[in-house]
Amino acid sequence: MASFSSAISNPRHVLSQKALAHDAKHMKICASHCSAFPLHFQRSPICRMSFISRLERKETRKPQISASVTDTTVGKSSEKVKLPKGDMWSVHKFGGTCVGSSERIKNVADIILNDDSERKLVVVSAMSKVTDMMYDLIYKAQSRDESYISALDAVLEKHRSTALDLLDGDELGSFLSQLHHDISNLKAMLRAIYIAGHATESFTDFVVGHGELWSAQLLSSLVRKNGVDCQWMDTREVLVVNPTSSNQVDPVYAESEQRLEKWYSKNQAKTIIATGFIASTPQNIPTTLKRDGSDFSSAIMGALLRARQVTIWTDVDGVYSADPRKVSEAVILKTLSYQEAWEMSYFGANVLHPRTIIPVMRYDIPIIIRNIFNLSAPGTKICRAAADMDEVAQGLESYVKGFATIDNLALVNVEGTGMAGVPGTASAIFDAVKAVGANVIMISQASSEHSVCFAVPDKEVKAVAEALQSRFRQALDAGRLSQVQVIPNCSILAAVGQKMASTPGVSATLFNALAKANINVRAIAQGCSEYNITVVLKREDCIRGLRAVHSRFYLSRTTIAVGIIGPGLIGGTLLDQLRDQTATLKEEFNIDLRVMGITGSRTMLLSDSGIDLARWRELLKEEGEKAVLEKFVHHVHENHFIPNTVLVDCTADSGIASHYNDWLRKGIHVVTPNKKANSGPLDQYLKLRALQRQSYTHYFYEATVGAGLPIISTLRGLLETGDRILRIEGIFSGTLSYIFNNFISGRTFSEVVAEAKQAGYTEPDPRDDLSGTDVRRKVIILARESGLKLELSDIPVESLVPEPLRACPSAEEFMQKLPQFDHDLATKRQIAEDAGEVLRYVGVVDVIKQKGEVQLRTYKKDHPFAQLSGSDNIIAFTTRRYKEQPLIVRGPGAGAEVTAGGVFSDILRLASYLGAPS
Ligand code: ADP
Ligand code: ASP
Ligand code: MG
């Protein structure tokens, strides 16, 4: 373990132990041994000594590396060479991932060598993760955690092995000796921080900037190795910045330009590799441009050189319409205006540091964001707005460029009637916020002046609330202010686009998309810059909100995650229909249905991106897992990129139906042919419908009555347009329709039932059809849909199962004994025939008398009900408008194909409710 004493026993170090241990100023002196010399100490005698010792050592090194210790503030000897500025310069910036390994650094060198610009300045970040490692060293040392030593060894090893891969000969020797020297100084400094238990900001900045110093030296050595004359620049000698109160820095352009000219006069080269991230204060104290600041460095350098363009190389194809890690369907933006890029980065698109735009905008220098791993992608060009103009005609979508989010925020709401019309309240609020140094990310005030609400980072909200409580103590006590309320766990979602806020319809569409995803908006702000609309959401809603608005504006397709429950006869047929139709729906109707899960009662199949429906049966068998409904629902709903979810219940299970309420509450849409929920207990039904009406969540059940026939939708259409339903009467059972259509003279009832069973028209036990229970459920569904508040037990049913056979233990026995009772129905048929009528088993909803019933009735031979064939359903609506002649819907009302078709059309209805184009 290298100890503090061993560090100071090095004869080149002339500092006293006492000084190192107790005086931060002396810690800065120690820092002066490092390759980047803190300039303000160069005038101190001690410092001079170390500086000289450094110059002596320099003889063994390449002159390029010794440039790091050149004192640009002295520089008397060198002759001034004028720095050329303008289009001949192209500036590149390579982010941490671009220089993350020796292979990647080689790749970067190739790009530099292939750029045929006359002059190039290349800004480079630290190797990926290195800045984090450096911050971690500080953190460990000041927490008195000895493992900072091994962590520093890891930093050394990372750079040493990279250098061994890349360099050889003198270049390698110089780099390694510089690296070892820096590391031993850092070790001494960290030891001092360890002893003091504290690191000042400038100390921290000094330590963490080493990543850039090393990567710039590595890269420049490699470029030189390839035969190109190249200098590396320690930007602390050039960039001068003033710290501001809000943990940011402002470049001092005039001074930086002078220093650049001075630097150039001693280091003329057509290729310059400069450190990103680091700079100096006007007092020559090393500082940084803060996290991710290398983008900013490159923009400042571009501005100082009046460069032709600044290319920022990173690991994505350009600026996406949303963070590609959160929205897999995000698309690359070809162009962005400076303002749009600024807004996107301010609101969290970390592809670009938010301050990058300002320096280049002054000189109209375009920024190109490009992917180092995909040179064929043209990237995103950020420039003046004019380039966008040709997109304006493309409709609302082109007004919104992208979306970004900021997490870990809290809202503070200062509320009270005493605020209205009182000048200075806002200023007092924000004074108090400023006093605790909190960063206000957005502000919103209703014009009633009743409340002011603003967002601050979560970690700052406690101090802000306390400051406000104390600042407004008197007003709170007097009741002029009613509260200072903190709403934690919020996120900001910002939509960015030139002029979007002033274009009618954009914000409506945005809020609509959020409402449809069942997301509650806590606060809203629209900058009068008209470049963004900002909404505050609950943190857990943020990603879903982002995806919902993104898909609404960007994909233009309605994407719905589908979960199928019950892949039996109907569910399976539906899956096959979906398989055959999804591509067409996507291409022609912009509806993107993705089956994310299929569950039976025993096995379920889950997918993150959509199940391959061509193989769903084998996949369910081979890759299915044990079915757990809760897990299934969670998976289909929380899969993190589809804004809408629909669960399709293809079972006849009341247990599944009992979950609808909970699902709708969660924002999950429900589509089903299952009659159990709508024919179950009235209070639960009413609750379900109330919930459906209050929210933007949809519940469709067309196939519960008449399979695919438009019965519920016809009824709804009549009601919604103000018609009054008087009576609904119909043959609702395909089985009973078949039986009575074929129960003609010469045939017995039992014979027809046996035939129907044989042909698969009946349930396995025909009593399930003959009892009339199923028809009764359909009648109650229609009765309730028409506004009657009835229980299932309020509907009398005439069962066709003879009383003595109801208790028969098996279907077989029932079928065997049924002929014994043929006489009864034969008599009824004879009476009807004698009167010129037929028997039909019907359900009736009598809205006037507020009742429903299921019974065997007779109809004249010319009545539409008497004209049926096969297993057709027929439903007659008598209404105020259709009084003389009822409105009749007729057609096949049973069977897997038509029932699944009815469910499918409900799913498409949902898509159109969610905004799919018609
Ligand atoms: P570098 O180290 O090159 O500076 P960063 O990690 O700082 O790279 O920035 C690039 C990353 O920014 C991308 O990998 C991407 O995940 C993220 N990012 C967030 N929002 C966006 C966006 N809208 N467009 C592109 N990338 C984004
Ligand atoms: N290396 C610095 C950081 O990680 C600066 C940068 O990469 O932009 O924050
Ligand atoms: Mg970055």
Summarize the structure in words.
The strands form six sheets. An eight-stranded mixed β-sheet has the order 3-6-2-1-9-11-12-10, with helices on both faces. Strands 22-21-20-19-23-24-25 form a seven-stranded mixed β-sheet, sandwiched between helices. Strands 14-15-13-16-18-17 form a six-stranded antiparallel β-sheet. It contains 35 helices and 30 strands. It has four domains: 226 residues, Acetylglutamate kinase-like (Carbamate kinase); 156 residues, VC0802-like (2-Layer Sandwich), CATH 3.30.2130; 156 residues, NAD(P)-binding Rossmann-like Domain (Rossmann fold); 184 residues, Dihydrodipicolinate Reductase, domain 2, CATH 3.30.360. The longest helix is centred in the N-terminal third of the chain and has 28 residues. A hairpin with a 7-residue loop joins strand 29 and strand 30. It starts with a helix and ends in a 5-residue tail after the last helix. The N terminus is likely disordered. The chain has 918 residues and is α/β, with parallel strands linked by helices.
In short:
This protein is of the alpha/beta class and 918 residues long.
Adjacency order of strands in the biggest sheet: 3-6-2-1-9-11-12-10
CATH superfamily of the largest domain: Acetylglutamate kinase-like
CATH topology of the largest domain: Carbamate kinase
Q: Which word captures the global form?
A: elongated
Keyword list:
single chain, 41% helix, Carbamate kinase, VC0802-like, binds magnesium ion, binds aspartic acid, binds adenosine-5'-diphosphate, 35 helices, 918 residues, seven-stranded mixed β-sheet, eight-stranded mixed β-sheet, 4 domains, Rossmann fold, disordered N terminus, elongated
